[in-house]
Recover the amino acids of this structure.
């Protein structure tokens, strides 16, 4: 059985990652969305077990102690973690998994699973546009907003460590680009031939 692919999609807060990922996955079959654990409170419309697993600090720290996370980090004052058992189980079963995490977490994941992982960075058209989007979102206090914008400077400096870059200027175009990456990675020669085991059926017989 061919192992699955872990698509790690990352970028600064407010860049539009979640919207792009959700719409792309509606148009594709055979993809599983990895749900992260977090200690932050749910935003309006977010559902526990669907958008995130919302847990308290004590529960999260206990999971860290038990080595249950593939990666975890504190971002913007809140903790986020990715279940190790869930990811590895699905990869071994041949499923394609999409993971929406922060840049720090993405770089930690690839250290452990480079062969199975595709890193995709979603960037804003400009830093000023990112600030505008965060302000329009209206979900953060001013202190949190300033922290996210400051963190974005470091996150944007890591673009060259990713395999692909999508500049989210037009939502539909960004969705199409993400779908194209998903499909292209699945039909890479190295992945297809690994599944086939040999090249025998490509050989031509002389008449």
């Amino acid at each position: 059985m061919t192992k699955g692919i872990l698509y790690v999609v990352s970028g600064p807060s407010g860049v539009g990652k979640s919207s792009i990922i959700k719409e792309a996955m509606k148009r594709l079959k055979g993809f599983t969305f990895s749900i992260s654990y977090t200690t932050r409170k749910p935003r309006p419309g977010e559902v526990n077990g669907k958008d995130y697993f919302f847990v308290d600090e004590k529960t999260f720290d206990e999971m860290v102690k038990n080595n249950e996370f593939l990666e975890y980090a504190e971002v913007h004052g809140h903790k986020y973690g990715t279940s190790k058992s869930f990811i590895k189980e699905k990869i071994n079963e041949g499923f394609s998994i999409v993971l929406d995490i922060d840049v720090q977490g993405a770089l930690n994941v690839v250290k452990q699973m480079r062969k199975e992982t595709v890193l995709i960075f979603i960037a804003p058209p400009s830093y000023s546009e990112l600030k505008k989007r965060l302000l329009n979102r209206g979900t953060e206090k001013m202190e949190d907003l300033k922290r996210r914008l400051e963190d974005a400077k470091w996150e944007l400096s890591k673009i060259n460590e990713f395999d692909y870059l999508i500049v989210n200027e037009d939502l539909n175009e960004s969705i199409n680009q993400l779908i194209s990456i998903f499909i292209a990675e699945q039909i890479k020669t190295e992945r297809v031939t690994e599944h086939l085991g040999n090249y025998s059926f490509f050989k031509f017989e002389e008449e």
In short: Residues 171-186 form the longest helix (16 residues). The longest strand covers residues 69-75.
